[in-house]
Structures are given as structure tokens and as C-alpha cells.
């Protein structure tokens, strides 16, 4: 058996299609309740990387057949000592050395760039939850990674939402939110809000529980927000935003986002939710999330499922999500390796 790892040029459509087939097979096997990635989304993400990021790509072959895919993501504006690793091995080729070969290639790339840490994620089974193959975490540990933080994925069944309970939660939130006004948009961030959104986005990793994960808060300004919006549009993503503006200052001080990757119309991701620390205690987190769910459902009638992730210790946000109807599905370990 001959295992060869070859760097991949994103413009090489033949090799990229082989990589896509690997990724699609991995998602179907490991996270079967996810929608397919879709060829359009996969190629759009290759063509349009997120602003402030570069990547090195490779495909692992067994006797000439594509068996694994590696993406090494390299932050360019912050976290310059870190690299994020997405390593996928086709289910038909597992436990044959492909993962180790791709890992060794990743280590060589990251070390060659002078970076000191590699981060990756692996799915795991929660107590009483859906059974997941533990092989990813076992492999990460065997390669020397340590689990620095476990996130929990929760899913909202939109078809079973208790609208009466949401109405009551929203009414209670508005009772605490005097002096604040709702703002909503889809697509690109309006210029009048862009500096506030940049500030809130940049705060996210400073405020969120990070466990033992060594990862700096990201540098976000108006230029980067515009660039993110442009890349999202180029990728075909549909994004729905709700914010709360503080009437006295005119600033947007709370914000949340639901994101459709563009593959299917029935599934979306609940992304960032953040409230400026100076404006906490007014139930603004609950307010923006419930209002944004309503806003999204009005525009996306086929929506059935929304997934979100929170650190397992983020009790406040978990309590909001569970009050809305999100329920735990599986765990996602954030594994980190110091080189």
C-alpha cells in the first residue's frame, strides 16, 4: 500500500473534486444529521477564503485513490503563532495510516511557517446523547493534542418551536429593555452600524469561555466587516441579523446572526450572539435571539433546523438557547498541540 500526500492548488478542479468527495463522505458518516456540503459551497469556499486568513491544502492518496483531505488555516492578522487544522479521512480508508500521513504533513507546514500551535476539532458522544464515533478524539490524543475546551452542539427543531413560550420570553425581555430599539438587516452590514458590529465581533473571543485554549481575540474593524460581508455574498451565504441600539448613545450594543451556508434551505447555523458588557442585565441576549429567529423564519419558510455551539461551561447562553428550544446533540472537542 502506497500513501502519498500531495499539496493541492485550489484552482486544480480535478484534485479539488477528489477532495470534495472525501469531505462529503466524512460528513455523511460522522455527522449524518448535517446537510451535505454541496459542490458549489465547497468550491466557493476554496475560491473565497475568509478575510485575514490563508490556507495550505493537501490530499492524501492510497495507491492513487484520494483517501484524505487536509486544510491548514493560517490567521494573518492575529493568532500568528496558531494554525487551524481540518483533517478528513474517507471512511473506506481509515486506520490505514492516511490520517497520520496528513498530520505529519500538517506539522511540517506549520513548523516551516514558524508557528507554534495547531488546533483541531473532534466530535464526541455526550452522556445520554447521540452515539458518535470517538476515533477523531482518540487520534488527536495519539498525535499529542490535548482537549483544551469542549463545545456542545445544540439543535433547534424549528417545526416544533413553542411560539407561545417564545412570545412570553420576548415580552419579559422587553420589560427590561426600556431605552433600547430593535434594528434588523440581511446581507451586508449597513454603514451606520458597521463600527459597532466590528467592536462587538472583536469582543467575542475575549468574552467567551476559552478553557485552556490558547487563542487571542481577533482583530476586527470596519474594513474587515465589509470584507467578510463580501466573501459571504460571493459564497452564496444568506445571513440574517438582529441588533439592539441604545437610544441615548445611538450605538448598537447587542447583536446576533443566523447564517445559511447556501447548500440547502432547511438548515442554518446560529452564529454569534453578544451583548456589550456595559449593557448586560437587560435581557438583550434573549431579545435579539428570539427576534432574529422570527425575522429569519419570515424570510426562510422552508427552515427546519438550526445548529449552534457553546462552550459546555457557558451557562448563561446555554440557558437562553434551551429556553428557546435548542437541545444538546453532541460534543465537539477543541484539541490543541504545542509544537
From TrEMBL:
Keyword terms, alphabetized: Acyltransferase, Transferase
Keyword Ribonucleoprotein: no
Pfam families from the UniProt entry: Acetyltransf_1 (PF00583)
Domain of life, per lineage: Bacteria
GO molecular function, one term: acyltransferase activity, transferring groups other than amino-acyl groups
Organism: Phytohabitans rumicis
Protein's UniProt name: GNAT family N-acetyltransferase
Alphabetized InterPro entries for the sequence: Acyl_CoA_acyltransferase, Bact_Acetyltransf, GNAT_dom
Domain N-acetyltransferase: 3-167
